[in-house]
Amino acid sequence: MTDRVHSDGTETDAAATQPGSFRQVVAVFTRDRMATAGLIIVILFYLIALFAPILAPYPDEGAGKPNASALTQPPSAENIMGTDQLGRDVLSRIIIGARPTLLVPLVVVALAILVGAPLGAIAGFRGGWVDTVIMRTTDLFLSFPSLLLAIAITAALGRGLFNAALALVISWWPWYTRLVRGVAVSVRQSDFVEAAEAIGLTKMQIVRKHILPNSVTPIVVQATIDLGIVIIAMGGLAFLGLGTQPPSPDWGLMISEGRSVLLSSWWVATFPGIAIFIVVFCFNVIGDALRDVFDPRTRR
Amino acid sequence: MRRLEFVITRFGSTLMVLLGVTVITFLLARTVPTDPAALFLGPRARPEEIAKVAEQMGLNDPLPVQYVNYMKELVQGDLGNSISTKRPVLDEIFARLPATLELLFAGMTTAIIVGILIGVFSARWKDKPIDWGGRALAILGVSIPAFFLGMLFQIVFFRWLGWFPLGGRTSVDLRFTSPITDVTGFLVFDALITGNWEGFKDALWHLFLPAMVLAAFPAGLIARMVRATMSDVLSLDYIRTARAYGQSENLIAFKLALKNAIGPAIAVIGLSFAYALTGSFFVEIIYTWPGLGQLTVNALLNLDYPLIMGVTLLGAIAYIAVNFIVDIVQAQLDPRVSLDD
User: Fold this and answer.
1) What is the Cα–Cα distance from A288 to A298, expressed in whole angstroms?
2) What is the pTM of this model?
3) ipTM reported for the complex, 2 dp
4) Are A145 and B286 within 8 A, CB to CB?
5) B274·A145 Cβ contact <8 A
6) What domains sit in chain A, N to C, each tagged with a CATH number?
7) Do B147 and A149 touch (CB under 8 A)?
8) What domains can be seen in chain B, in order of their start residue?
9) Mean pLDDT of chain A
10) Distance from CA of residue B310 to its chain's centroid?
11) pLDDT tens digits along B93-125
12) How far is CA B54 from CA A32, B22, B63, in A?
């Protein structure tokens, strides 16, 4: 049923997902060279985001300072990726723009997990009316296309990076509630939880000690793929003018700004576009590799 | 009889969700920071005028009363008036709907066909070069944002190769040479049934790039899902039996396995539709396609909240309807699908 389909279209049959240990995660990367390459590239991009002001060749231009002497210059030795309509170095804009583009989605997904996962654990473990209330609320949020809901929320709250991020958290948490609930329901029926109940652990303790740890692997797998989707969604909000506001850089915003000079100066929009594509591609490769190992349903 | 029961129960829960959706769009419309009355009257309105309009619009009533009024208008098909054009929101939406539906239809059809093909071929030749290529294509599809792919295609297919137009639904001079008679609003279809060959070619030529861009993400999703379900089915006992009897691999994959793999894979079509729907916003801006996406983006710029919430509500309704249909089709295909699953 559609109820189990996740944000990336896989059926997260959480009950069938194996708990898995950290060592198994490491094993994925030692065996799968594509996944390892993906991971290295992603880490590189995040390091670039962290050290952006040091790495950018023209940090001022990267942050938005116009340079009237070099408007829309094609790629050259001084500006490897050319300059935009305001004469700013595109490479510097990409490096500085990596911060909102890559770091904010990380926070968004983390917050969505932080809100969604405990709710799912409670719903699956308590059952009864608590389960009904939580899951009906989840269904409600998921009956909107997630990005459409995020657009509407950002429009209502007012544009800006913070509101766009908040809107994405509001539209994304239910995916994790649903995921963790599946785990909780299956764990609840297991022997060790019965044993835990027998020795007098409270429900909260069982949720904390058994259900949440068992949810870690499915959450990690899902979060990896979701990060790619949220980066695209965040870029989309910026493209629509709802996220990062100029003159601050953001890859989605840069693509949108490059549209007006697309046919005469292709480099303005193309390089940030390639950057976004590489990162999301890597997240998807990693996510696929993880899922192949931890979801026995798709195991070969 | 059980089928009918399934449909009715599923319909009931769908109605409940719809009701909840209206609560969310209503609350969103009311969290708007700017006073709707002030927005409606424009920047030069006097405070007493704003107060009067606020009273008329019922903005001083308690929230539950406002919601009931909102619902009363909603069931009559009244979504309020657009702030920028002052015309009814529903009229604005319906004027733009055919263009978006045509794009969505073309994009989703392409995505479903291409997605299933890639998925099936990947699973049939698992871990062979065809599979690697198929998987790479699928990941490619879900990794390129529509707003970038659209522009990339414009550079390559318009600027460099000159094969396709930059945007729009038809060429500008088509209006004078062979205008398309409006029947359904689907230009390609209208031109075809009115025998307007020139118009048909032109409309199709304009539809191609936007539809391809729109199809990329859903096609990737569908391909991955089909590959996964096909792989599942191919490892089942009846397939092993078929192999033992010496049936050819092609017959096994394309006939025996596909039939059972397609059911579970259909579930992802609902979700693909959701991505295509939001994807169409970006595609429409990039290809100056005069549909709902353009309307919404203009509404976002003008802070036209009634219009934004109208589109959001309609998008949710469409998504819910698609999921409803998908569930029913899936239940038809697979008798094991039950309500409480």
Assistant:
1) 10
2) 0.88
3) 0.87
4) no
5) yes
6) 24-65+74-294 (1.10.3720.10)
7) no
8) 3-75 (no CATH), 92-333 (1.10.3720.10)
9) 84
10) 16
11) 988 899 999 999 999 999 999 999 999 999 888
12) 62, 22, 14
